[in-house]
Design goal:
The complex is a heterodimer.
Chain A lengths: L13 H14 L2 H21 L4 H18 L10 H23 L10 H4 L18 H10 L3 H12 L3 H9 L6 H20 L1
Helix pairs in contact in A: 1-2, 2-3, 2-4, 3-4, 6-9, 7-8, 7-9
Chain B lengths: L7 H9 L4 H12 L2 H20 L9 H7 L11 H4 L20 E2 L3 E4 L2 E8 L2 E11 L8 E3 L2 E8 L1 E3 L4 E3 L3 E4 L8 E2 L5 E8 L3 E3 L2 H10 L2
Antiparallel strand pairs in B: 1-3, 2-3, 3-4, 4-11, 5-12, 6-9, 6-11, 7-8, 7-10
Helix pairs in contact in B: 1-3
The chains are: A mainly alpha, B alpha+beta.
Chain lengths: 201, 219
C-alpha cells in the first residue's frame, strides 16, 4: 500500500512547487495539494522535531501547517518568495506559537490581565511585519550562495535551522567556546549576503 | 532612518523561530520602520526555505493526508475575544503610534517610578513569562547606572537617549548584556519612550534604591 510519503518520486523543482501552490489557490486542486503534502509535510515534521517539538505534536502541527497552506494559498506570490520559503514561514510561525503554548501550559503565577480564553484565537502571531515586497530576486540566488560558502559557514547556517539549541550545537560542531558562536553566525550570514550580492552583479 | 539595528544572530533566531516572544516583539517593532532589516530577514527566511527543502524528511503517520483533508473545511470564525477584555492603552505623546507588534498584548496604564519617570508592564498573550515593558522618561532624565543579568533589547519608540556609547534615537535598536554597564540619559530636547525586553536575567542596578525598585518592577 502506498501512503503519500512512501512514494520515492523525484523532488519537484521550485517552479513546479510554485505551480502546485497556484493550482491549489486558483482551483482548490486536491491532486496538487496532495503533491505539496507529499513533499512538505514530512519536511515540516522533521523541522519541528529538530526544533524540540515532540513527535506526536510535530505530526499534528505538520498537518495544521498544510491546512494553513490550503487556506492561505491565495496570498502566495511567486514573484516575492519561493514556495519553500513561503511554506517555511508558515511552519516557523506554528513553531513559535507551539513554544508559547508549551510554556503557557506550565502552571505559573500569572499576571493580572492574563486570561487563557484570550489566547485561543490569536492565530499566526508569529507573523512578522515584512511582506517580502523587496525579495523578488532573493530566492533565485540563495541556493547558489549557500553552496558557495566554505563548509564550516554552511554548517553554521544548517545548525541554526536544524537544532533546538543552535548556539550549543554550533559550539560543539566547530569546537569553539559558546561565547564566540555569535561572531561565527555574523560571519556566516555576512559571507552569505556578500556572495548573494556578488551573484547578482 | 535608524542607525542601530539588530545583528544577524538576532535576526537569524527570529527567522528560525527560536527567539523568545518578548524579544521577537521588540525586533518586530524595529522591522516595522526598517526596510533594510526586513530585507535582511527575508534573506534568512529564504535560507530557511532552502533548509526545509534539504532536511531529511520524517515520515508522516498512515492516514495523515486524509485526516488533513478532513480539516480543510473552513471553521466558523470564532468571535475575537481580545476586544472584549482589552483595556484602553495608556496615552502617548502626540504623533507617536503604537507598534503593530504590540497588538493583542495587555499594556498597563503608566505607573510612576519617580519624578519624570514612568513605566508600563506589557503582558504577551499566552506567554506570561515574557518580560517586556515600556519606559517613559522626561527630557534630561537619567536612568540609574546598571548592567544586565541577561540580554536586554531596547527599541526607541520616541525621543532619544545617550548612554556614553552612542546616541539612540527613535527607530534604533540597542542590544546589551552583562558586558555593558551604562547610565542612559534622555536627551534634552524631548521625552523618551522605549520598548524593552529582558531575557535570561534581570537588570542589575548599582544603587540600593534602584535595585529595590527594579525588584519591585520585576525587571
Amino acid at each position: 500500500m502506498l501512503t503519500p510519503t512512501d512514494r520515492r518520486e523525484a523532488v519537484p523543482t521550485p517552479d513546479a512547487l510554485a505551480d502546485l501552490l497556484y493550482a491549489v489557490s486558483a482551483s482548490r486542486d486536491h491532486a496538487a495539494f496532495a503533491a505539496l503534502f507529499r513533499h512538505f509535510a514530512p519536511r515540516i515534521k522533521a523541522y519541528l522535531i529538530r526544533g524540540g517539538v515532540a513527535p506526536g505534536q510535530a505530526e499534528d502541527l505538520a498537518q495544521e501547517a498544510m491546512v494553513n497552506v490550503w487556506r492561505k494559498a491565495a496570498s502566495f506570490d511567486r514573484s516575492r518568495a519561493a514556495a519553500s520559503t513561503w511554506i517555511f514561514t508558515i511552519a516557523r510561525n506554528l513553531r513559535i506559537d507551539q513554544l508559547r503554548h508549551e510554556r503557557d501550559a506550565v502552571p505559573s503565577a500569572t499576571l493580572p490581565g492574563d486570561d487563557a480564553d484570550e489566547v485561543q484565537d490569536i492565530v499566526d502571531t508569529g507573523a512578522l511585519p515584512c511582506d517580502h515586497a523587496a525579495s523578488a530576486q532573493i530566492g533565485q540566488g540563495v541556493r547558489a550562495a549557500i553552496d558557495s560558502l566554505p563548509p564550516e559557514q554552511a554548517r553554521v547556517l544548517q545548525l541554526s535551522f536544524y537544532e533546538e539549541q543552535p548556539h550549543v550545537a554550533i559550539a560543539e560542531a566547530l569546537g569553539i567556546p559558546l561565547g564566540t558562536v555569535k561572531s561565527r553566525i555574523r560571519l556566516a550570514v555576512g559571507q552569505l549576503r556578500q556572495r548573494l550580492e556578488h551573484l547578482k552583479s | 532612518m535608524s542607525m542601530h539595528h539588530p545583528d544577524d544572530d538576532l535576526l537569524l533566531s527570529l527567522a528560525v523561530g527560536s527567539l523568545d516572544r518578548a524579544s521577537a516583539i521588540v525586533i518586530a517593532a524595529h522591522l516595522e520602520g526598517c526596510t533594510d532589516c526586513c530585507q535582511r530577514l527575508e534573506l534568512l527566511e529564504a535560507v530557511g526555505g532552502e533548509m526545509l527543502a534539504d532536511i531529511e524528511p520524517v515520515e508522516m503517520e498512515v492516514g495523515a493526508f486524509s485526516r488533513t483533508l478532513e480539516r480543510l473545511d473552513p471553521l466558523p470564525a470564532l468571535p475575537t475575544a481580545p476586544a472584549a477584555s482589552a483595556r484602553p492603552r495608556p496615552d502617548l505623546p502626540a504623533g507617536m503610534h503604537w507598534p503593530r507588534s504590540l497588538e493583542g498584548c495587555d499594556i498597563t496604564p503608566w505607573k510612576r517610578l519617580g519624578p519624570g519617570m514612568r513605566w508600563s508592564r506589557i503582558t504577551v498573550p499566552g506567554d506570561p513569562q515574557a518580560n517586556a515593558f515600556l519606559l517613559r522618561m522626561a527630557a534630561g532624565m537619567q536612568l540609574a547606572a546598571h548592567t544586565h543579568g541577561g540580554r536586554e533589547l531596547t527599541q526607541v519608540l520616541y525621543g532619544a537617549f545617550d548612554d556614553g556609547r552612542d546616541v539612540w534615537r527613535a527607530g534604533d535598536l540597542d542590544e546589551t548584556d552583562g558586558d555593558v554597564h551604562h547610565r542612559p540619559v534622555v536627551t534634552a530636547d524631548s521625552e523618551c519612550i522605549c520598548l524593552v525586553a529582558l531575557t535570561g536575567g534581570r537588570t542589575r542596578f548599582d544603587g540600593l534604591i534602584a535595585r529595590a525598585l527594579g525588584a519591585w518592577m520585576g525587571i
